[in-house]
Amino acid sequence: MLDHFDTLAKLSAALDDREGLMLGEVEEVNSTFRSRLRTLRLLRDFTVRSLGSRAGVSASLVSNIENGRSNPSVATISKICDALGVEVADLFSSRKIELTPQVPADREVLVTEGGVRKSVLLRESDRGVSLYQVSMPPGSETGTLSNPSGTLDLITMIEGRVIVEFGEARVKLESGDVLRFFSNTAHSISNETAEEAVFHWLVLDAKSRSKTAQV
């Protein structure tokens, strides 16, 4: 079993002297590299296009590398690693990939005048996707909201109760309930109880639902 390349210098030397490796060893290194590249890309929620854009290379090159149709240069590998936020060794190691979870202290928090707190769990404007954890104190409300045509909202209650009003509809939600609605219609959410309400709020704009994800 080959040790992983832990520096660019070693990687460069290995790529320049592949004759020193047996065919099976070369394929083992290449297979590990391709597999971990794809895994890390998907863990970052990057398409081949978005990774290519971040790395300054074409989407077709990223796809060809992952599928074994192209052998990248050391410079290209370095750019891809920078875009993924990993070390070169991470693409060649046989060790499990260590992930760092998002912690509350790292989240952006939006607070309204009424005390409604929206913690940003995910916001990707280029893909039209936003996910919030919302905390509503007793007696609070969001006020009237509206989004562009085609925007789809999904509310998943975690605890407490809220009332969602949109158009002529009025829906009471409690822990475990899920509500899906198009939010281009004027809508509002209120907590009329004496307890805090917490829910996840997913917002998908029209382009996020019309595009087919490129994987």
From TrEMBL:
<dbReference type="InterPro" id="IPR013096">
    <property type="entry name" value="Cupin_2"/>
</dbReference>
<feature type="domain" description="HTH cro/C1-type">
    <location>
        <begin position="37"/>
        <end position="91"/>
    </location>
</feature>
<dbReference type="InterPro" id="IPR014710">
    <property type="entry name" value="RmlC-like_jellyroll"/>
</dbReference>
<dbReference type="Pfam" id="PF07883">
    <property type="entry name" value="Cupin_2"/>
</dbReference>
<dbReference type="GO" id="GO:0003700">
    <property type="term" value="F:DNA-binding transcription factor activity"/>
</dbReference>
<protein>
    <submittedName>
        <fullName>Helix-turn-helix domain-containing protein</fullName>
    </submittedName>
</protein>
<dbReference type="InterPro" id="IPR050807">
    <property type="entry name" value="TransReg_Diox_bact_type"/>
</dbReference>
<dbReference type="GO" id="GO:0003677">
    <property type="term" value="F:DNA binding"/>
</dbReference>
<dbReference type="InterPro" id="IPR011051">
    <property type="entry name" value="RmlC_Cupin_sf"/>
</dbReference>
<keyword id="KW-0238">DNA-binding</keyword>
<dbReference type="Pfam" id="PF01381">
    <property type="entry name" value="HTH_3"/>
</dbReference>
<dbReference type="InterPro" id="IPR010982">
    <property type="entry name" value="Lambda_DNA-bd_dom_sf"/>
</dbReference>
<dbReference type="InterPro" id="IPR001387">
    <property type="entry name" value="Cro/C1-type_HTH"/>
</dbReference>
<dbReference type="GO" id="GO:0005829">
    <property type="term" value="C:cytosol"/>
</dbReference>
